[in-house]
Amino acid sequence: MLDDEQLESYGRDGFVVLGEVLTGDEVAELLAVEARHRPVQAFATPGVDSLLLVRDQLTAQSEPLRRFVTGGRHLGAVTQVLGPDVAFTHTQFITKLPDPGQVDSWIPLHQDDGYGTLDPPLDATVWTALHDTDERNGCLVVVPGSHHRGLLDHRPDAHNPALRGVADEDAVAVPLPAGHAVLFSGLTLHGSGPNRSTQPRVGMHARYCHPGVRMASTGDTPVLDDRHSWMVAGEAPADAWSTANANFTRSGVDG
Question: Exposed (0-12), middle (13-18) or buried (19+): which is 252, by Cβ within 10 Å?
Answer without folding.
Answer: exposed
